[in-house]
Write a structure and sequence with these properties.
Arc Repressor Mutant, subunit A, 64% helix, mainly alpha
């Protein structure tokens, strides 16, 4: 597995909270396209088919935990 960047980790945290790409972009003050790119890179690096599985795998690997950091 490729290493996730700090920004990709931030995006995963927001994905864990169920945020949409638009909400991620607004929260991180980035464009919607950039948010989508970070989501896609995270999914690819974790080797999973979708954002839900990315969060599940990150939890299993200990990259994320179940605490709510909102």
């Amino acid at each position: 597995m490729e290493t996730l960047t700090p920004r990709e980790l931030e995006v995963l945290e927001l994905m864990k909270l169920g945020r949409t790409n638009r909400q991620i972009a607004e929260n991180l003050v980035i464009s919607l396209g950039t948010a989508k790119n970070h989501v896609e890179h995270s999914i690819t690096k974790l080797g999973v088919p979708d954002r839900t599985q990315a969060v599940v795998k990150a939890l299993k690997l200990g990259i994320l935990d179940l605490t709510d950091a909102s």
